[in-house]
Design a protein that fits this description.
The complex is a heterodimer.
Chain A: E1 13-16, H1 29-38, E2 43-49, H2 55-65, E3 72-79, E4 88-92, H3 95-111, H4 121-127, E5 131-135, H5 140-149, E6 153-157, H6 165-179, E7 183-185, H7 197-208, H8 212-215, H9 230-236, H10 241-253, H11 276-291, H12 298-314, H13 317-332, E8 339-342, H14 349-354, E9 383-387, H15 391-402, E10 407-415, H16 418-428, H17 433-440, H18 442-445, H19 455-460, H20 468-480, E11 484-496, E12 507-509, E13 516-521, H21 522-528, E14 532-538, H22 539-553, H23 569-576, H24 589-598, H25 603-612, H26 615-619, H27 623-630, H28 649-652, H29 662-672, H30 677-688, H31 696-709, H32 714-730, H33 734-753, H34 755-764, H35 773-782, E15 786-788, E16 800-803, E17 806-808, H36 819-831, H37 837-844, H38 848-856, H39 867-876, H40 883-888, H41 906-917, H42 930-935, H43 941-946, E18 952-963, E19 970-977, E20 980-987, H44 988-993, H45 995-1000, E21 1003-1012, E22 1018-1027, H46 1029-1032
Parallel strand pairs in A: 1-2, 2-3, 5-6, 6-7, 9-14, 10-13, 15-17, 20-22
Antiparallel strand pairs in A: 3-4, 4-5, 8-9, 10-11, 11-14, 12-13, 16-17, 18-19, 18-21, 19-20, 21-22
Helix pairs in contact in A: 1-2, 7-16, 11-13, 16-17, 16-20, 22-33, 22-34, 23-33, 25-33, 29-30, 29-32, 30-32, 31-32, 33-34, 34-35, 38-39
Chain B: E1 6-12, E2 15-21, H1 23-27, H2 36-42, E3 47-50, H3 55-67, E4 74-77, E5 81-84, H4 96-107, H5 119-128, H6 147-155, H7 161-165, H8 169-176, H9 178-188, E6 205-214, H10 217-237, E7 240-251, E8 256-267, H11 270-283, E9 294-306, H12 323-338, E10 344-348, E11 358-362, E12 382-393, E13 400-405, E14 408-421, E15 440-447, E16 452-458, E17 468-475
Parallel strand pairs in B: 1-3
Antiparallel strand pairs in B: 1-2, 4-5, 6-9, 7-8, 7-9, 10-11, 12-13, 12-17, 13-14, 14-15, 15-16, 16-17
Helix pairs in contact in B: 5-9, 8-9, 10-11, 11-12
The chains are: A alpha/beta, B alpha+beta.
Chain lengths: 1065, 476
């Protein structure tokens, strides 16, 4: 690193906190770095409170500045002690010093529960070698002991404008002189500019659990703790100019940057006597032989040779071996865990032959080099999906194999999102919870998106946007968004190292027992080029495995992921009918709308289908051109400059000239705008993460102007850029699409040929997928599956098959029922069938709550009493039977006169079904309101679907799904009644005026116009939406108690269409 | 113009909710339990006041007392009901309906009423039905069960009290408890539901009558002291002390003189009260005029507060006081003599803004607050408002070198500062983007004569090109 031109700007801030000093720093790391640079400082030192969580972001921001000047960045931590030691800033001067700092922080972290760090002075003294220290206060004794521990020691001096700055400075000067410790000038910055003071005050309030009106003097008296220009610092420290000059000495003492974190891969998977590369090639060739017993075809040989060369050049062999090792382990278990790889490196033949992925890249013409370009100086990325219920076994294996010193889970940075920001800022500003709840609650906030609260939403919530309190709230929320709140563990991103992990990054205790995680998240790990393996959980893999098990169990078939019959016409025919409820990826409203238009006929169509209904392509306006071309309504053309008109054919040929995959967009930037591979990757990076760097416009101009300059149409160029922007947020590389498409196919095949099996497995893997149990069951019944009710005499915990097309609902469907109770019940039943409820109660020895749930779910019908009588009976059972009576098997309760309860009306039955297990086999709530609805001219869903194109209709149903995909210019609503479902679409402009009704109704009446698409898809184009939720309460006779509104944004599958019964809560 | 909708609000958890609404508010769709913010959003004109949780029970007690003119048997039915046993009383007003009409007028509140043969039935009818309804048609809610039990009843298909009444009571008791059956039977009139008539505590009073009227002030005071001893015994038995003492002197010509004193802390001991009365008598514009003498002196303690019995000092000095009670006694005497608004105490307020960091409150209102420790040197008293001065100071934030105050020039010889205090942006009426106020730089300065001042520059150099200066306090 060249020395900075300190001569002109003789000051650099060495004590700057970022918002990774949670609720203390009020600016993002990048903002601090950029501001320091803009102020003409010679450098900046980032030191957060007992943490280095933010330094990678600062580092990235700094590297983006590289080439602009000699501005330097040093990174370290502000050590805050649990004893009375004043704060000390520590900067590693060397790589070894970094290791000691991270070990020191790890020591403090591991002593306490999650989130804290308990350090004592003694800890620092034993870890101080290689650390440059700045004591923010202290006495001669402290300075003497620090001096002994490290040769690089300064005494920090500040001028906080606190009334007696000069006097304090003089004291500090005297103290430094006496202890022979040089002074260093700092402003102890907590934010970038004075305008950040209100946000800093709000953070202080949040941290102290108070509000701005009550906070008083815990708030800073002024806005002085910003980064101050060197001239201003020089003026403030006119009495001690040596303190300004000393900032140069700090920077001179430090030779460490985060780029020094050299990374070595673990060597475990390589047997003795082999090099990693040789062992990898050996394994891959074995895998190749297994697939091509007659020898590899030429194309495969060439691809393999190229991949081997790239992997050898970059030294990535251990990485592939590690992934292989993990996958191999999962498959070696009995029963094996289903798993499948995806990610940028998963296109490789190496991965295919290692068995990590099911996709043959040569057959699918996937290009390997595009992800492992020489320019992309980062390890390959392979995510592996495992069955969601068994991923923990894999995680434990990794810990066991690599040890906790070398394997750690990446952090997940929990950030302020709209809802949390509104809640906490509102509280800090002294607004009541009602105000904030109204703004952030389901009704108002769930579809928000990013950025400031729209004024309109404020008005709808009943607030005047011009009201100063509300304006403040709005502005502060906008500023607080994206601030990190705390660190927790990532779901499955593992970092593996060759040497001690805690010398690379501090380690924290996680909330889960026996879990630790490192302080950096996936983006940080990426930016530093560390190796990570994503061990992800995928519910559909669980469903597929359970389907295979069930099929094997009843002797239907014996299949594996690899042996499911391929390219089955019946399966594609089913998908073309948009009959895809329950399948993987192609089941959402938007996907269902697309299926009849895409008309998939082969696996690659599914790959496109999976990739096309994504925000990226939708925002980029790529969907319709693709469809038109596919349907032959538009000529397949490849835009190109005059000198190379066909240059995009290679890039976009597979997708008919429309860029749909992330790789295509990147490749397009390289081919059409002559981006270097590094620039293309920088572009992706600028979009995906570290968004606040503001570098995006740089790329936009470069791409668009580059393309236009080469002769492309500006419109096309702009659309390309728009799409790349979309990819940033929701990137979907082709290999992901390939991997997902295969699972989509397998699940569709199962649904098509084994509907009972598939539904059963799906229900047993809940929660997952898009639809609620009721819809899955209804769909199965529509496909000829007989669904039998929950029955204490027949049901198991899981849903089970009682025949090829007969599904018995299991006890797990009852909300609140426990697996352990089911076990007791089934065990007791194994001897002999229950004779009566009392027999059941005695022999299964279930707690009263379990019995009450059984009765309430109408699961005792087979034992005699109807639901109402059973529930009445259950309420009477004593909490625990006396053992004496139990031993005598004598009825403990005396005979009782018949209560002669009124019979349960069918509507009440259905409501009780929904309340206890969220579906009913007896009917649909709407059928009991049909009379009232018909009087108002409301049609059934079936009638609407049969209505003529353009007919104006009124339709009612319970709301299954509300979705606002993509750019959000339309809202999809799915209504259900006893005859089926209607898909309604509401344009955003109409939505805004009736947001309350749309967002909060459980029962909705929609007026609108029927629209038939060319493909025969019927939509109800909604114009007016009326909330009729109160009618649902009539069903069980509780007319005066309105059904409570759903009070939280939920996944559609978790939304209750009827409020839960409160009997047992 | 119709009065603005009005509501009382109470904090529940973290939120302010409506605790009571008036008719106008009700017409706007506001209901009890609604969040204040929601209510405001619906009805911006809503006027709200914090609810005094003690007020409603107090008012109910008072109303009960007034209802005793209809029957001696008045019971409270909290939180907002009264139960009148009018057996044998109705004819005094004519009919039952006429009694009710009169009672409603007497009450002065918007109220509902119901007649029944039993208290429980009346309660159920008035709260869950209408006056004429048969109790059997009331919803099961009238038995006042917890939510889960209520939904248990609903699940069983039992909707009205009649549905319950037709079922075997033993079965209900086994499921919902004996209490529920008891309440049900009471409502149905099958079990007694006696009311517990209110028994208001007797006021603290003492009275002396004189066959021979007394006229000498000493005699009057001695008589009052005797009454105070009497009252003290009554209060001691009830563990209360008086905050207000009222003396009525009845002259034999029928004229009545009244004297009253209030104390900051509850008192029982006669001596301090006597001192206060003495002060009061001394401060009267025209002294006690006994005329032909007083034949009756009465003492009442209309305002009392709990006061535990106190250990008498072991020295045997029954009049030993702690420091607090000495000061309190002084404050009481001063307040009695000068008026509550003239005896003030300074209380700290937690803010950086100097003039807002303390405030006055009548000393008799309560004990002093603890002042936070501060290292900042501030004058004890601030000039209000700060006095404008003209000052010459270094740019951008140097201390004043000289300044002129009230025409007099002060050469600054020593200065310390600045202490920079930024405005409280959250008070800014137009958001916090506008400056909304100016930052102040405070300096402690000493002039050539050794006088010390606290001055400030109003506005940082970059907030205002030509900042004004003010003198905010003097160090003495």
């Amino acid at each position: 690193m060249t020395p900075a031109p300190f001569a002109q700007t003789p000051f650099a801030e060495t004590v700057a906190a970022t918002n990774y000093s949670f609720l203390r720093g009020a600016s993002h790391p990048a903002e601090m770095v950029l501001r320091a640079h803009a102020l003409g400082m010679a450098g900046i030192g980032i030191a957060d409170r007992n943490s280095v969580a933010g330094v990678v972001r600062a580092h990235v921001a700094w590297k983006d500045l590289a080439g602009i000047g000699d501005f330097r960045l040093i990174v370290g931590a502000r050590l805050v002690f649990a004893d009375d030691t004043p704060d000390i800033i520590a900067y590693p001067t060397t790589r070894a010093g970094w290791g000691r700092l991270t070990r020191l922080l790890t020591l403090g972290n591991r002593r306490t529960t999650k989130g804290d760090c308990e350090l004592r002075l003694g800890d620092l003294l034993t870890h101080a070698e290689g650390l440059a220290l700045i004591a923010m206060a202290g006495d001669a004794g402290l300075l003497a002991s620090l001096r002994e521990a490290s040769p690089h020691l300064w005494l920090g001096a500040t001028m906080p404008r606190g009334g007696h700055d000069a006097r304090r400075l003089a004291q500090t000067v005297a103290l430094g002189a006496a202890a022979r410790v040089p002074l260093i000038a700092t402003n102890d910055a907590a934010y970038a500019s004075p305008a950040d003071r209100p946000l800093h005050d709000v953070l202080t309030c949040i941290r102290n659990g108070t509000n701005i009106h009550a906070a008083g003097r815990i708030l800073a008296p002024n806005a002085e703790r910003h980064l101050k220009p060197p001239t201003e610092m020089a003026r403030l420290f006119a009495a001690a100019p040596e303190a300004i000059a000393a900032t140069r000495d700090v920077f001179d003492a430090i030779h460490f940057t985060l780029d020094d974190l050299r990374y070595e891969y673990p060597h475990e998977p390589v047997p003795d006597g082999w090099t990693p590369q040789a062992w990898l090639e050996h394994l891959v060739e074995q895998g190749g032989l297994a697939r091509f017993p007659a020898g590899l075809p030429l194309a495969y040989r060439a691809t393999l040779a190229e991949e081997f060369r790239l992997i050898r050049d970059r030294g990535y062999a251990p990485y592939f071996l590690t992934v292989h090792d993990i996958v191999h382990y999962a498959r070696s278990l009995n029963p094996p865990i289903l798993c499948q790889g995806r990610g940028s490196a998963a296109n490789s033949l190496v991965c295919y032959f290692l068995g990590v992925t099911p996709i043959d890249p040569v057959e699918q013409k996937l290009l390997f080099s595009r992800f492992l370009s020489d320019a992309r100086d980062e390890p390959p990325d392979i995510d592996v999906d495992f069955e969601h219920e068994r991923r923990e076994e894999v995680i434990q294996y990794i810990y066991a194999r690599y040890g906790r010193e070398r394997a750690g889970i990446a952090a997940a940075v929990t950030r302020y999102r709209q809802r949390s920001a509104i809640r906490e800022v509102g509280k800090a500003l002294g607004l009541t919870e009602d105000v904030t709840a109204r703004l952030s609650g389901t009704v108002w906030g769930s579809w928000g998106g990013k950025g400031e609260l729209p004024e309109q939403r404020l008005a709808e919530a009943g607030f005047e946007p011009a009201n100063p309190e509300i304006a403040r709230l709005r502005d502060m929320v906008g500023r607080l968004l994206d601030f990190p709140r705390h660190l927790s563990q990532h779901v499955g991103g593992f970092v593996l190292t060759h040497s001690r992990l805690d010398e690379l990054v501090p380690i924290h205790n996680a909330a889960m027992e026996d879990r630790t995680f490192i302080e950096w998240d996936k983006d940080d790990i990426d930016a530093l080029g560390l190796m990570k393996v994503d061990v992800l959980a995928l519910g559909m893999l669980t469903t597929i495995r359970k389907s295979f098990d069930l099929m094997r169990g009843v002797g239907l078939a014996d299949l594996t992921l690899a042996t499911v019959p391929r390219e089955d016409p019946a399966t594609y025919a089913m998908l073309r009918r948009a009959d895809s409820i329950g399948t993987f990826q192609v089941e959402s409203r938007a996907q269902i709308a697309m299926l009849p238009r895409m008309k998939p006929a082969c696996l690659y169509d599914l790959v496109i289908q999976v990739a096309i209904v994504r925000p990226g392509p939708i925002q980029g306006g790529m969907v319709h051109p693709y469809l038109r071309r596919r349907n032959g309504e538009e000529k397949v053309e490849f835009p190109g400059p005059p000198d190379a008109p066909d240059e995009l054919r290679d890039v976009l040929g597979k997708t008919l000239g429309v860029p749909l995959f992330q790789e295509q967009a990147m490749k397009l930037a390289m081919v059409a705008a002559h981006f270097t591979p590094a620039e293309a990757d920088g572009l992706r990076r600028a979009m995906a993460t570290f968004r606040r760097n503001g570098t995006i416009h740089h790329y936009q101009t470069k791409l668009v102007e580059g393309m236009v300059g080469r002769g492309y149409e500006r419109d096309f160029a702009e659309r390309c850029f728009e799409q790349i922007k979309g990819f940033g947020d929701y990137g979907f590389p082709e290999s992901h699409a390939q991997a997902f498409a295969w699972l989509a196919y397998v699940s569709s095949w199962l649904k098509c040929h084994m509907p009972a099996v598939f539904t059963c497995a799906l229900l047993n893997s809940q929660p997952m997928g898009f639809y609620a149990t009721a819809q899955l069951v209804a769909d199965a019944r529509a496909h000829g599956v007989e669904v039998r009710p929950i029955d204490a005499a027949a049901s198991l915990w899981d849903n089970s098959l009682e025949g090829e097309r007969v599904l018995r609902l299991g006890l797990r469907q009852i909300t609140g029922f426990r697996e352990e109770w089911a076990g007791m019940l089934v065990t007791a039943r194994a001897d002999r069938a229950f004779a009566s409820i009392e027999d059941l109660a005695r022999r299964a020895d279930l707690p009263p709550r379990a019995m009450a749930l059984l009765a309430d779910a109408d699961a005792c019908a087979a034992l005699g009493p109807n639901r109402r009588e059973a529930g009445w009976e259950m309420r009477r059972l004593p909490p625990k039977q006396l053992s004496l009576f139990a031993a005598m098997e004598a009825p403990e309760l005396g005979a009782e006169a018949d209560a002669a309860l009124p019979p349960m009306r069918p509507a009440e039955e259905v409501v009780a079904d929904y309340q206890t297990y969220r579906l009913s086999l007896k009917g649909h709530p709407l059928q009991f309101l049909r009379g009232a609805l018909a009087q108002r001219g409301v049609l059934t869903c079936a009638q609407v679907n049969a209505a003529k194109d353009g007919a104006r209709v009124r339709c009612a149903g319970v709301v299954l799904v509300r979705q606002r995909p993509g750019k959000g210019n339309a809202v999809f609503i799915t209504l259900e009644d006893e005859t089926g479902i209607v898909n309604a679409l509401l344009w955003a402009r109409d939505f805004e005026t009736q947001r309350a009704a749309v967002m909060s109704a459980r029962l909705m009446v929609i007026e609108g116009q029927v629209q038939h698409s060319k493909e025969g898809v019927v939509h109800l184009m909604a114009q007016r939406v009326v909330d009729r939720t109160a009618w649902l309460a009539r069903l069980d006779g509780a007319a005066d108690a309105p059904a409570p509104l759903p009070n939280r944004a939920r996944h559609p599958r978790d939304a209750r269409i009827l409020p839960q019964s409160r009997d047992f809560h | 113009m119709a009065p603005a909708p009005f509501a009382l609000v109470a904090r529940s958890g973290n939120a302010l909710r409506l605790a009571a609404v008036d008719a106008a508010a009700q017409r706007q769709g506001l209901t009890v339990g609604m969040a204040l913010a929601d209510a405001r959003a619906r009805c911006p004109a809503l006027v709200s006041q914090p609810q005094d949780p003690a007020a409603a029970p107090r008012a109910l007690q008072a109303l009960a007392a007034r209802m005793q003119r209809f029957t001696p048997m008045v019971a409270l039915d909290p939180p907002d009901g009264l139960m009148l046993d009018i057996t044998g009383c109705a004819h005094l007003c004519g009919t039952e309906a006429e009694l009710a009409a009169q009672a409603m007028v007497e009450a002065g509140y918007t109220a509902r009423h119901a007649f029944a043969d039993h208290a429980a039935a009346a309660r159920a009818l008035v709260r869950y039905g209408s006056a004429e309804q048969d109790v059997r048609a009331l919803p099961v809610m009238a038995v006042e069960l917890p939510t889960d039990a209520l939904s248990g009843l609903r699940r069983a298909g039992l909707v009205t009290l009649g549905d319950l009444a037709r079922r075997p009571m033993a079965g209900l008791a086994a499921r919902f408890g004996e209490d529920m059956v008891g309440r049900l039977r009471a409502i149905l009139g099958e079990a007694g539901s006696p009311i517990a008539p209110r028994n208001a505590p007797a006021p603290i009073r003492a009275e002396a009558r004189f066959a021979e009227p007394i006229a000498r002030t000493e005699d009057v005071l001695a008589a009052i002291e005797g009454l105070l001893h009497d009252a003290a015994r009554q209060m001691e038995a009830r563990q209360i002390g008086g905050r207000r003492f009222a003396v009525m002197l009845g002259r034999c010509d029928g004229m009545r003189l009244r004297l009253g004193v209030e104390t900051g802390l509850p008192l029982r001991a006669p001596a301090p009260v006597m001192r206060l009365l003495q002060e009061r008598i001394d401060s009267l514009a025209d002294p006690l005029d006994p005329g032909f003498g007083f034949d009756r002196i009465a003492l009442a303690v209309p305002r009392t507060e709990p006061l535990a019995a106190r250990q008498i000092a072991l020295t045997g000095d029954a009049h030993a006081h702690t420091d607090t009670s000495c000061v309190a006694a002084l404050i009481d005497r001063l307040t009695t003599r000068l008026g509550a608004g003239n005896v003030l105490r300074l209380h700290p307020r937690d803010t950086h803004i100097p003039e807002a960091s303390q405030h006055f409150a009548p000393a008799s209102q309560g004990p002093p607050t603890v002042w936070p420790a501060s290292s900042l040197l501030r004058p004890t008293f601030l000039l209000d408002p700060p006095q404008p001065i003209t000052a010459l100071a270094g740019v951008p934030d140097g201390p004043p070198q000289r300044f002129r105050w009230q025409g007099q020039l002060h050469e600054v010889t020593r200065a310390e500062g600045p202490e920079r205090i930024a405005p409280e942006w959250w008070h800014d009426p137009v958001g916090h983007h506008s400056p909304g106020g100016l930052t102040r730089d405070y300096y402690r300065v000493e002039d050539a004569g050794g006088q010390r001042f606290w001055v400030f520059r109003h506005g940082l150099f970059d907030e205002r090109a030509d900042p004004k200066w003010y003198l905010h306090g003097l160090f003495v």
